[in-house]
Amino acid sequence: MSVSLKHFLLVYDRETDRLLEQREYQDATEAAEAYRAKEREFDGQPHMDIVLIGARDIETVWRLHSAYRDGAAARLRSPDVLEVLLEGFQV
Description:
The protein is of the alpha+beta class and 91 residues long.
């Protein structure tokens, strides 16, 4: 049984730590065309991440690419997360 692969286009602004756009495509060609259009739209804006990810569902995308969710960078900078990460480096 084959699993249907969907294509998710994400537009993420690293300056504001916000996911600006999320679109789902069934057709790979249509997804690739949309990706190229977004790349052109945000050309010259290095703080913008335009990504196209193939996955079974959006939950899989978030599990594997959680950095593209709203507020992900802020959560990584939180004292609780830093404390947990640094615990592994204590001598």
